Amino acid sequence: MKIRIVGLPDEVDRAAAEIARVLTVVETSTPYPSRGNSRQVRLYLEVRLP
Q: Are 5 and 23 in contact (CB under 8 A)?
């Protein structure tokens, strides 16, 4: 399963850590800046259900 997280860098890091507590994270992308003048980033996770 693939999950995309969008938010401020600290929020994205925290959300990814919380997801990793519940699901098996197989792969994590590097944060990509969102389009435009946004301070947000996108992070992609590939996970497996337990």
A: no
